[in-house]
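Quick question, first post here. What does this chain look like in 3D?
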Amino acid sequence: MQAQIILIIYILAVNLLGFFLMGIDKQKARKRAFRIPEATLFTVAIIGGSLGSIIGMHLFRHKTRHWYFLFGMPAILLIQIIFVLFLKFGPIDVLFF
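> Answer (accepted):
Ran it through. Tokens below.
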């Protein structure tokens, strides 16, 4: 049970980070200030923050004209969902599920 709580807290935190990074980068874009690198935005999505990044991307209307964000972020989320389903129902018994 302890591992599940840690995993949930991690997923929530990294998704909030992805969400807020999209908002912060949008504000910086409006002010023409130093921007958050796109590699950082994708890294946060890859380590588990894809849903928060997608929500932030659409809510703040940020990076929605870039095809690699429009298709890349949902692709990352889809891969993560498939990975979790494989861990849950796959042939390997994972203890924290």
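The chain has one domain: 2-89.
The two ends are 9 Å apart (CA to CA).
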